[in-house]
Design a protein that fits this description.
The chain is α/β, with parallel strands linked by helices. It has helices at residues 41-49, 76-81, 99-106, 110-119, 121-125, 136-148, 166-183, 194-200, 218-222, 225-231, 243-257, and strands at residues 2-11, 15-25, 30-35, 57-66, 69-70, 84-87, 154-158, 186-191, 203-208, 211-216. The chain has a domain at 2-83 and 152-218: 3-Layer(aba) Sandwich (Rossmann fold), CATH 3.40.50. Helix 3 (99-106) runs parallel beside helix 6 and helix 6 runs parallel beside helix 7. The longest helix has 18 residues, at 166-183. The structure holds adenosine-5'-triphosphate and magnesium ion. Adenosine-5'-triphosphate binds at residues 11, 15, 17, 35, 37-43, 55, 192.
Length: 258
């Protein structure tokens, strides 16, 4: 349904941020896109949503296909009209407005406003609050609800966990999964918190240095100790075995390289 074939993106006509990313985002499922800082996760989502132009970037190779049509040359409003919505990494809500007004200006009809409160009752309790003063988790919930107000078929979610405690992250991803199942949504979920993402995902891709280096079911990825340690930063057991030193050397090398 949504496929990326060998997609390459360059910023400022030169710096190549992703170099040949191929993904299959299965309909009605949650696909996780994991990887460390600077791996190219946000760039990949920005390429799909059509917002690269705002960053002085462009797709310079490969193709993005949605429902059989190429979308990598489309402006953001056309991508959005096809039913693809983005919950961006930053600036997701209008900070100076109340929760109620954020919802009202995003919803196309009053009925949708009521649906949003029915889907996320917590937002009803917060409706009079100024969005800028919400807690991190509350703000993310509002951002999620606002993206869902456009009734997308595909939801692209960038780092819901940014700056949140693990418990709050788990709760939010649980909410996302609940709505995804209820609506039959297709979700591409970018997360640095791999453990939390793999708990709700049906399939996962791991990126490193602008490339996909691994993919598999959550079970397969979680059972692969090296992937967990090298790419996802999840330590396996006690760290006494041989690979512990290798991991540290690997990280050191990355620091010099980066
Ligand atoms: N606006 C920009 N201009 C130039 N280079 C950029 C820009 N945004 C990102 N990059 C570069 O593109 C590469 C991929 O960055 P990207 O933000 O996609 O990574 P990420 O996986 O989302 O990282 P993080 O987990 O930190 O959010 C990095 O090398 C980054 O420095
Ligand atoms: Mg990012």
């Amino acid at each position: 349904m949504l496929e990326l074939h060998q997609v390459e993106v360059a910023y400022n006509k030169t710096a190549t941020a992703i170099r040949g990313v191929s993904l299959n985002v299965a309909p009605g499922k949650i696909t996780a896109l994991l990887g460390t800082n600077g791996a190219g996760k946000t760039t990949t989502l920005t390429a799909i949503s059509g917002f690269l132009g705002l960053e002085n970037a462009e797709v310079v190779g490969g193709e993005i296909i949605y429902d059989g049509k190429r979308i990598d040359r489309l402006p953001p409003h056309k991508v959005s009209r096809l039913g693809i919505a983005l919950v961006p990494e930053r600036d997701k809500v209008f900070d100076t407005l109340t929760v109620a007004d954020n919802i009202k200006i995003t919803a196309r009809t009053p009925a949708r406003v009521q649906e949003a409160y029915a889907e996320f009752p917590r937002l009803g309790e917060l409706s009079g609050r100024t969005a800028g003063y919400l807690s991190g988790g509350e703000k993310q919930l509002l951002a999620l609800a606002m993206a869902l107000l456009t009734e997308p078929d595909v939801l692209l979610v960038d780092e819901l966990s940014l700056g949140l405690a693990p418990r709050v992250t788990a709760d939010l991803l649980g909410e996302l999964q609940r709505v995804q199942r209820a609506r039959g949504l297709t979700v591409l979920l970018v997360e640095q918190n791999a453990a939390a993402a793999l708990r709700v995902a049906d399939y996962g891709y791991v990126m490193e240095d602008g490339r996909v280096v691994h993919d598999g079911t959550p079970e397969a990825l979680l059972s692969h100790g090296d992937i967990m340690e090298f790419y996802l930063g999840i330590a396996e057991g006690d760290g006494m075995h041989r690979s512990y030193r290798d991991v540290k050397q690997y990280r050191r090398k990355r620091r010099w390289a980066g």
